[in-house]
Every structure is written in C-alpha cells, then in structure tokens.
C-alpha cells in the first residue's frame, strides 16, 4: 500500500518547503482541507514506480495554548496516521526544548522516524550535525530544502528502506508493492472491478454503498485488509465480480448513517491509488464546493477512471435542478470523458445505471491495443492534419505503441515529437479517444523523439554497399597494377639487344 510520510517539527524549520519539493506542487495535487484537517496539508509524490503520500503539519513548540494547542494535536494525529516520520530540525537554531519533546514522543511511539537537518547550506555538516546526536534519533540527514539540495538522496534512501531490491531467485514478476498487494488481494478474495466511492462527508457515500450491497447482491464477506482501515468488500452482481473499497469506515449493512462517517483523506488517497474506477459522489442540494474540487483533483492526478454521481436529486424542483446542471456545465465542462448520473442513493433512482458506466470505464482503462493498430491511427491522424512547422521544420511522427493501462498510456515516437504544440497534442488525444472508443477514463500521451528504429538497418545496408564498392575498387587497382606490370615487362623484352 502507498506509504504515508508525515513532516513534523517546530515552526519555521522548513516543513512546507520540503513538502513542496516532495510533491512537486506545481504539477502534483496539493489539497488543504479546512475543518477536520485544520492545519494539515496532504499531497502525493512519486519516486520511479513508487508513489507516496506526504502530510505537512503545523509546528510543535511544546508551549502551545488555545488554537496552537489544537494545531499541535493535529500534528500528533498525523504521526499516528503515518508509516514514516520526517522529524525536521533547523541546524542554525540548534536543539530546543520543542525538539527534545518531539524526539521523546517519536521514540515512545515506535514509529519509523528519520531526523532531517534542514538549512545546511553554507555550513560544515560534520560540525553542525554533531550536537543533534543528543536527541537519540540516530544520525541526522542533512538537506537544504530551499535550494533543493539533498532531497533526492533523502527520498531515495527512504524508498530503498521501504522497497528493498528483490533478489533474482525471489523475483515474482511484480514490483515489490504490487507483489504485496497481489498477495493481500488473493488472501481477501479481492477480484473483479475495484470501485472506490469517494466524496466529502455527508454527500451520501454510505447510503450509496449500502444500496450497492442491497438484497439483490451477494456479499462474499466484509473484512478489513491492511490498508489503513479501508474495507474491501467483494461481491457479485449479475454474474460479474466487483470489489468495493469503502473509505467510510466499518459498518454493518444499513445501521450506520452518513452522519457517523469520518472523513479521512489518507484512506481516500490510498483507495484512489488502488482502484480501477472512482465514483465521485456530489450533493445536488449543496452544489459544488471547494472540497469537491479537491477530491476531483485527487482522482484526475491519479489517472483513474471516473464516474460522477450527483446524489439527492429526488425532491428538487425544476428550477433547482436546472441551476445544478448549469453549475456542473460551468465547473466540470472540461470533464468530457466522464459519465455523469443524477441519482437518489436513498431511493435507488438511477443507481443501476452507474454500473453501465463503471463497466464501460473499466473496459477502457484496462484495454490493450496492438502497436500496428495504434500506428495506423497515428498515420491517419497525421494524414488528415499535419503537425505545424516548428522552428522551420515539420515534426515527423513515425509510430505509436501502448505504454501502460489504468490510465491508458500511448507513446508516440518521431522527430521533434517533444516540440508538438499543445493544441496538436489535444487533436491526437481526441482522435485516438474517438477511434478507440475510450470512455470514462483519462488517456495520457508520452512523446519521444529520436532516430528511426530502422536506422540501424539502413546504416548496415549503407555500410555493406560501401564495403562492396571498396572491394571493387581494390580489385580494379590490382588489375590495373598487373596490366601495368605486364606492359613494362613486354616493353623491356623488346629493348633487349639481339645476340
């Protein structure tokens, strides 16, 4: 499962700066949830094939009162949620009472914690790090978050601890985290389409989940996995297997109300990472709010297939319904690939149609295509609309192949492929989506430029031709030399005096 890293420490030691470095904030999702999460901020990062979740917390000084005390409490809660803790200190300030208090708490918590010494730039690590051994947290890892120094080394070191390399005799065909997940899923009988029902509190997730698990469904069993209290619920519908990933907490059928549900961004992020299809539930009566957009950003950044359910549609008059539709068109107009359903989870209205969209989205997200088919689509697209000229040259797109699934990734190769303008990339994406009938899932493109894959063969032909030409030339020279030698011998024989 995706590991969770909490950043803790006193105020102004650089936690938010490190958070932005780890999550690459400009590109990756960053959500600051008000209310329950208070000062905590959640984001996602990735090293190679390994994603992770980062929690940025408020500072802990050890002398909190009032609102500061509540914020410190949230920081301690983040430590409990995390798999790994980055305990940050400021090398310029030295050790403080707050640092000692945090170190003592971490030692007693038993959490896997790393001491991170920030603001090391311009200082001798051997000198300034020595005093931090006093905290009993082991050797400090020096970084300069503001200047991006030491960040890669830090995260590579931690990821190596989390995902040790598999020895050849132990290889399973999976990446380490995939192998762990495959074993866990086999033990829990998790199979079929994995569906994550996500959304902010009180939009009707629990009601919808219980509607999914109604009398006409066969629930195999309900058992907690090792996924930070997310519940995997395998069941069958019309002969097809599904698994619900329930982020709302343990419930017994219909006797848990939505009001009792506890919102957890950690569970939601992990469920989104692990599912095939997300159902994002919105409340029609409250309209679209900021937390809905945060939740949507989680799904879009993960690349997961998406179905949107606008719940509590029953009982609304025509004017209110039109107002909601207008708002959805205005704020979600860019979501052309996602199916939207207006439902009532309480009464079951429209819920059955969700399955049609889920099945369609799953099929598109997991589809496989042959390289010759994708290359043919690329050639037709280029034939209908040539790429625009870039710096006096027109890009030549040569071939395409599939680079992955969930989401589908199509890799396009050609000269100047990296320089294609954004509007032409959208044209290609729309063309592939239309021809391949991809629905319900985002589609990602990778553009790679380089030599023609057949260039080596062409070089071999040219090299062979050159060798043959050189051989012919050598033969001609040998023949020429022989003729010249014979001519000289003949001339010499005529010049001999007669005896």
TrEMBL record:
Q: Pfam families recorded for this chain?
A: KH_dom-like, MMR_HSR1
* HAMAP family per UniProt: GTPase_Der (MF_00195)
The Gene Ontology terms for molecular function here are: GTP binding; ribosome binding
Instruction: Report residue spans for region: Disordered.
Output: 457-499
Identification of the protein by name: GTPase Der
Q: How does it assemble?
A: Associates with the 50S ribosomal subunit.
Record field: compositional bias (Basic residues): 488-499
InterPro entries associated with the record: GTP-bd, GTPase_Der, KH_dom-like, KH_dom-like_a/b, P-loop_NTPase, Small_GTP-bd
SUPFAM superfamilies on file: P-loop containing nucleoside triphosphate hydrolases (SSF52540)
Alphabetical GO biological process terms: ribosome biogenesis
Q: Which gene encodes it?
A: der
Residues in G domain copies: 5-119, 194-312
Q: Where does this protein come from, organism-wise?
A: Thalassolituus oleivorans MIL-1
Q: What residues does the GTPase Der C-terminal KH-domain-like domain cover?
A: 369-448
Residue spans of biased composition, Basic and acidic residues class: 457-473
Keywords from UniProt, A to Z, are:
GTP-binding, Nucleotide-binding, Repeat, Ribosome biogenesis
């Amino acid at each position: 499962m995706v590991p969770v890293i909490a950043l803790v420490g006193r105020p102004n030691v650089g936690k938010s700066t490190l958070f932005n470095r780890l999550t690459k904030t400009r590109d990756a999702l960053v959500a600051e949830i008000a209310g329950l999460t208070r000062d905590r901020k959640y984001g996602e990062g990735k090293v190679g094939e390994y994603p992770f979740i980062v929690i940025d917390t408020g500072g802990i000084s050890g002398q909190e009162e009032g609102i500061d005390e509540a914020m410190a409490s949230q920081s301690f809660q983040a430590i409990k949620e995390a798999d790994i803790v980055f305990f940050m200190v400021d090398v310029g300030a030295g050790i403080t009472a707050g640092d000692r208090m945090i170190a003592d708490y971490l030692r007693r918590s038993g959490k896997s914690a790393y001491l991170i010494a920030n603001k090391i730039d311009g200082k001798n690590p051997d000198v300034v790090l020595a005093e931090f051994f006093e905290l009993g947290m082991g050797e400090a890892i020096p970084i300069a978050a503001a200047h991006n120094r030491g960040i890669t080394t830090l995260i590579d070191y931690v990821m190596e601890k989390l995902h040790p390399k598999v020895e050849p005799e132990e290889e399973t065909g999976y990446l380490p985290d995939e192998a762990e997940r495959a074993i866990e899923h086999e033990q829990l009988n998790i199979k079929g389409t994995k569906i994550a029902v996500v959304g902010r509190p009180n939009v009707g997730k629990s009601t919808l989940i219980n509607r999914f698990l109604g009398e006409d469904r066969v629930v195999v069993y309900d058992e907690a996995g090792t996924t930070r209290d997310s519940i995997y619920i395998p069941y069958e519908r019309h002969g097809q297997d599904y698994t619900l990933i329930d982020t709302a907490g343990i419930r017994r059928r219909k006797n848990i109300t939505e009001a009792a549900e506890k919102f957890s961004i950690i569970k939601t992020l992990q469920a989104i990472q692990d599912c095939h299809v997300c159902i994002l539930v919105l409340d029609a009566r409250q309209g679209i709010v900021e937390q809905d957009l945060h939740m949507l950003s989680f799904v879009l950044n993960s690349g997961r297939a998406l179905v949107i359910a606008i719940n509590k549609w029953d009982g609304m008059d025509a004017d209110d319904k039109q107002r909601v539709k207008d708002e959805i068109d205005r704020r979600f107009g860019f979501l052309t690939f996602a199916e939207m359903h207006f439902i009532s989870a309480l009464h079951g209205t429209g819920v059955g149609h969700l399955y049609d969209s889920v099945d369609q989205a799953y099929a598109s997200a997991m589809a496989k295509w042959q390289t010759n088919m994708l290359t043919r689509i690329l050639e037709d697209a280029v034939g209908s609309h040539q790429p625009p000229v870039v710096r006096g040259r027109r890009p030549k797109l040569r071939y395409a192949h599939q680079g992955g699934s969930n989401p589908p990734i199509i890799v396009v190769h050609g000269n100047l492929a990296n320089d294609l303008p954004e509007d032409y990339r959208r044209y290609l994406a729309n063309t592939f989506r239309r021809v391949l009938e991809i629905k319900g899932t985002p589609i990602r493109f990778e553009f790679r430029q380089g030599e023609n894959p057949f260039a080596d063969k062409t070089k071999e032909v040219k090299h062979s031709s050159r060798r043959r030409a050189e051989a012919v030339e050598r033969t001609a020279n040998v023949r020429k030399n022989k003729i010249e030698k014979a001519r000289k011998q003949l001339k010499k024989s005529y010049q001999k005096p007669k005896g």
